[in-house]
Amino acid sequence: YSNAVTIDLWEALEEASDLPLSAMMNTWTKQTGFPVVTLSRTPDGALSLAQTRFFSDPSVVDPDDSRWDLPLTAQVGHGSGGGGGPELHRVGIWTASDLPARDAAFEVHAPTSVGSKFPADSPWIKLNGLQQGFYIDNYDADGWLRLQSPCQQLVLSEVDRMCLLDNAFVLTRAGKLDLANALEFSRAFANDPSYLIWKSLSTHLTFYGSLIHQTPTFPKFQAYVRRFYGPQLARLGWFTQDTDQESTAYFRSEVIRMLGTAKDPAVLADAVIHFQTLVTTPEASRVTSDLRAVIFRVVATHLQGQVYDQLRTLYESSDLAELKNDCLGGMGAVQNKWNDTLEWALSGKYAFAGVVRSGIEGADFTWAFIQANWDRLNDKYIPNKVGSLVCLAIGRFQSEDKAVEVEAFLGDKKTTAYKRRLDTTLEGIRIKAACFRRDATHLDQWLTAQTL
């Protein structure tokens, strides 16, 4: 085998399959990146395909003539309501490497013969069926609208549903899909039973909630979250049930966390009751340890200094590492104790994450603390640990001004050990800044118009 090279593998597979695999694999192994493939309907109802290289930063222009030969599959609906199926439709390989140059939008368009292989009369088409390809599938506004039904009716698999949801928001952040379309699409999952779906929903909604946390739009966002997540808590409840599945505890915790962030009155009141039981008579508490961290944080955010001493006492009296971490998370939410918490962290208690998770304000405070105590931190921790603290703090920032401030402070500092992580974090800050400029007004308009 010592004389075998990569092309030998492709040629052997090509001979066995009678497919042009060598040429296809060259487009994947000899260039970087991966594509976004967009399925659209023309005015006459025909289907068309286009691909372009994906960049998370919409300001980046592809310097190369990137295109990929793609094995195309699709999940296809049938029946008048689209509730039948889905059927896996194999189209074949779309050979894009020998097509003409890209258009002004840097897209490579497939010949009409490729689009014609899809059943245009199908009520909906989901590209990349069963997620067998390495590309992000995108659709025109009508295509995203059509896909709501198979997601809502659970016709598509959990994997396909979750990937569609993630793709919608990933494309929105990259400036390739209107935020209103992604948010409208997410409403199709209001009754989805999957924890993974709701975990993904929470991640994306939290991202946009953080963007507008310090704006007049945030109360509208909180009201939407209360309406959207409330029915799930009513179904799951606070306590373990006989019908619970393995993931239900995580599901319950995620829902309560989101409702706590949204200041749901009933959740806040119940959380305070459970908190006092956990702190004073833990053996009498009916809530599981999975909920302890979220209860501590929700209550500490709500009551602030009233519970700080209780959490610190509980931390110092416990030998359980998990309980200590839960206490630190709650202590970090108490704003008027941030300096005490971070000073305490320097004495050996790792509480930075708890403060940073308190939002932009906590990140600002932590970053200022890091700057003021730079020498102390570097004397105490190895460079990689310092880099973790820095990136943890600045990762919450979302403005160009903050990115410039960070670069100015670190310009003469030794950051070689964590340069790549720092560069990635700074890029993320600038992407969030671009999202805010592009989408903040649209988010406000969409939230204003919502009634569930």
From TrEMBL:
All copies of domain ERAP1-like C-terminal, residue ranges: 124-430
Pfam family, one: ERAP1_C
An annotated Gene Ontology molecular function: metalloaminopeptidase activity
Entry-linked InterPro entries: ERAP1-like_C_dom, Peptidase_M1_aminopeptidases, Peptidase_M4/M1_CTD_sf
GO-annotated biological processes: peptide catabolic process; proteolysis
GO cellular component assignments: cytoplasm; extracellular space; membrane
Family assignment from sequence similarity: Belongs to the peptidase M1 family.
Protein name: ERAP1-like C-terminal domain-containing protein
